[in-house]
Amino acid sequence: MRRAALRLCTLSKGLLAPSRGLTQEPQNPENVFHIREVRDKLREIVGASTNWRDHVKAMEERKLLHSFLAKSQKGLPPRTMKDSYIEVFLPLGSQPELREKYLTVQNTVRFGRILEDLDSLGVLICYMHNKIHSAKMSPLSIVTALVDKIDMCKKNLSPEQDIKFSGHVSWVGKTSMEVKMHMFQLHGNDFSPVLDATFVMVARDSENKGPAFVNPLILESPEEEELFQQGELNKGRRVAFSSTSLLKMAPTAEERTAIHEMFLNTLDPKTISFRSRVLPANAVWMENSKLKSLDICHPQERNIFNRIFGGFLMRKAYELGWATACNFGGSRPFIVAVDDIMFQKPVEVGSLLFLSSQVCFTQGNYIQVRVHSEVASLQDKEHMTTNVFHFTFMSEKEVPLVFPKTYGESMLYLDGQRHFKSMSAPVTLKRHYMVEP
Ligand SMILES: CCCCCCCCCCCCCCCCCC(=O)SCCNC(=O)CCNC(=O)[C@H](O)C(C)(C)COP(=O)(O)OP(=O)(O)OC[C@H]1O[C@@H](n2cnc3c(N)ncnc32)[C@H](O)[C@@H]1OP(=O)(O)O
């Protein structure tokens, strides 16, 4: 079973503390950025075009960087966790002109915007790790492969207080890197933890066509060794989780019994028939919890490699997921966990983005939402899945139960339950905890 997706972000909690420990290091001014500098820095590193009409020329220029790619990982100098450590400031309090973009109507911070910032930040961290000191541009194209988890903390997120992000590479493979990021908000004179995030980024060649080696990582302290070990465990856990996926294997005996009991609960006692189904009290059929959206992926949403920015996809999916939870629960939902967002395929500029969201599991005040994302090009009507997003929300009130009708929906229910159960900590988030769309 998966490791916790939700843990409270206290400094005394296990492996996250040493990671934050890196924030105690003296700050290198070169590694401290204003949020507005992050995208400019990324554009500078990859030489991305500022105008869409120049994007083909910019890509042609990137082809020339191919010769800088390493033939093996051994040929690359090792890096420390501190080499990739950066801090990014989002001064919502001291620079009110930034607020509008981050504001919800309830005067809280838009979590979708935070997802976008984390994505850009994760990529910048990886470029810091793989920096070629003699060159301004990087031959690597770094893409987001997975949002492993985002653990929320019991803290208010005010649009009127400064925010700080920090992060570094915590594990490397041959072409992939795990990145740990933390977010803090100013309370009084101190920055208090808001969230912890773990992403996996993959390095590709200059044209984003094939894999590329990343610099090895050297570990300098027992804390860093522990973080690296955790990265190894995370990799193993992902493999184990995926091998027991309900898309590959039958549910466990316990899960099968639970589903059959739910089925029996929906049989009409007045008829002796498997087909006549009645919804139990305080329950909603899963099929009635759906919301859908369509977006056209305009060039404005492109990333530095002329594909659609992963953060944009996450924001869109998150906001639809939030609306689904709101519609279902009938009150304001708050995000408590995000996990296992896999970026399976890049999304081309100009694609049609179809998002389909549904509640797949509920318990008490909790709503587990799954958002399925697929794209189609304007010419070709064939749809292709690009992502599946899993969000756990907490509602202000207790929510109805959700009932599957078909076998496929039953599998969605069990998958949702598995994601929900992967939160090991007692869920104690209270009303003052406010992170909204
Ligand atoms: C107005 C001005 C405009 C200017 C223009 C510029 C605009 C500026 C705006 C910039 C905004 C900032 C953007 C920053 C960029 C953000 C990044 C993105 O958006 S990216 C967009 C969103 N993202 C995308 O679009 C990505 C879409 N996905 C893909 O392309 C592929 O699935 C893949 C490349 C990720 C993996 O391909 P696959 O064929 O499987 O690859 P391999 O088999 O070769 O394995 C390679 C390594 O990867 C590992 N690994 C693989 N999967 C996972 C996993 N799930 N979990 C964990 N690990 C995974 C695997 O273990 C292996 O590791 P290792 O052993 O070598 O260490």
Automatic annotation (TrEMBL):
<protein>
    <recommendedName>
        <fullName>HotDog ACOT-type domain-containing protein</fullName>
    </recommendedName>
</protein>
<dbReference type="GO" id="GO:0006637">
    <property type="term" value="P:acyl-CoA metabolic process"/>
</dbReference>
<keyword id="KW-0719">Serine esterase</keyword>
<dbReference type="GO" id="GO:0052689">
    <property type="term" value="F:carboxylic ester hydrolase activity"/>
</dbReference>
<dbReference type="GO" id="GO:0005739">
    <property type="term" value="C:mitochondrion"/>
</dbReference>
<feature type="domain" description="HotDog ACOT-type">
    <location>
        <begin position="84"/>
        <end position="207"/>
    </location>
</feature>
<keyword id="KW-0677">Repeat</keyword>
<feature type="domain" description="HotDog ACOT-type">
    <location>
        <begin position="287"/>
        <end position="399"/>
    </location>
</feature>
<dbReference type="InterPro" id="IPR029069">
    <property type="entry name" value="HotDog_dom_sf"/>
</dbReference>
<dbReference type="GO" id="GO:0047617">
    <property type="term" value="F:fatty acyl-CoA hydrolase activity"/>
</dbReference>
<keyword id="KW-0809">Transit peptide</keyword>
<comment type="similarity">
    <text>Belongs to the acyl coenzyme A hydrolase family.</text>
</comment>
<keyword id="KW-0378">Hydrolase</keyword>
<dbReference type="InterPro" id="IPR033120">
    <property type="entry name" value="HOTDOG_ACOT"/>
</dbReference>
<keyword id="KW-0496">Mitochondrion</keyword>
